[in-house]
Model the fold of this input.
Amino acid sequence: MSTVATLSRVSFASLTPNNLGTVRKLNSVIFPIKYSEKFYQDILNPELEDFCKLVYYNDVPVGTICCRFETQGDQTNLYLMTMGVLAPYRSRTLGSQSLDLILATASTHKSKINKIYLHVQVSNESAKKFYERHGFQEVGVHANYYKKIAPHDAWVLEKAF
Done:
């Protein structure tokens, strides 16, 4: 299959109250933790429309990517809260295309975004390598980041703009 054919099969949709149930269902299957009602209300914030997306493959919702802004002093950072694709759809460049969309949007956003960062559970070596291939660097370990799943520690990865 050619790259052009693969790219044309992938599309993204903004999150709305009408598709929030799909996001909930995908998250419950993809991630080992349950997200709060506040998480789901927060990702509907219009300010985040360019940074929270449903990922479609052949018009079927197969993944999500959700970020939030964090301000520290005069710096604005983007925190990648969740990014995941259903297991049968992995290794089809969906994760890379999703991340590339967010990185491109962040680099041209009206608010100057200094960096994007995220947490990866220390047992998830493949996720860490994925982000490193996209220019992220490990900047530390957050001890006891995950309260309800083991291992509890998470790598902190970031990419500056």
